[in-house]
Amino acid sequence: MTGTIFPDLKGKSVYITGGASGIGAALTDGFMTQGAKVAIIGRSAADDFIAEMESKHGATPLFMQGDISDVARLRETIQQAVGEHGGLDVLVNNAANDKRHSLDEVDEEFYDWMQEVNLKAYFFACQEAARHMEVGGAMINFSSISYMMGNAGYPIYTTANAGITGMTRSLARELGPRGIRVNALAPGWVLTQKQLDMWAKPADLDAHMERMCLKEHLKPEDMIDPTLYLASTASRMMTGQTMAVDGGVVVSG
Fold first, then answer.
1. Considering the entire predicted model, what is its pTM?
2. Which of 131, 162, 172, 225 would disulfide-bridge 240, Cβ 3.0–4.6 Å?
3. Structural domains in the chain, sorted by start
4. Pfam families, from UniProt (predicted)?
């Protein structure tokens, strides 16, 4: 859990996609620790998580059930968050699906669904959020180092993540004159419960560790402080950037 305090985030209105599980749940916890008002959208009921946040923080995130690939529902939940929290200061596009697939097995339906979840939803969340943000607003789009590494095994996912960073740069240019910042955060292999259950085989973990400068696998909590930083005025002159948080697998510059 974060020990860093960002005083300017207290009372801010934050909207997080997929904010009740995996990395998103850690982010919700992190923003609530700062005293922010958090709204989240998720596909599945999250009663246990909401109760956990109530017990820990004495407040509950605004949970709205929905699928981010349903653009109308996505817009509706952002509007609801704005109404209930008095505006929108921070958007975190976090929800994604890295379902494994090979080139040959992909059909049009699966391709379209993967792009709807991993890129299209990000674009329309940014579009709707921009309609409600004022000077000082911040958007954080979660990408992934997977496309930087040229990983095989999920080519539609890596395509979408490359698109996220391109979109981030263009939106930063468009929204900058309005005082709204747009940055991307590219995690390395974060060992959520889903990753541990489905894909984190010992041999693959060992091979990934060999590429890491810091010899410690990433946890969801490791994404909290970088996200808070990008949301905070601590990064007020940073926009259009992609920040890798991966233990030193990829390098830039």
1. 0.95
2. 172
3. 8-192+220-245 (3.40.50.720)
4. adh_short_C2
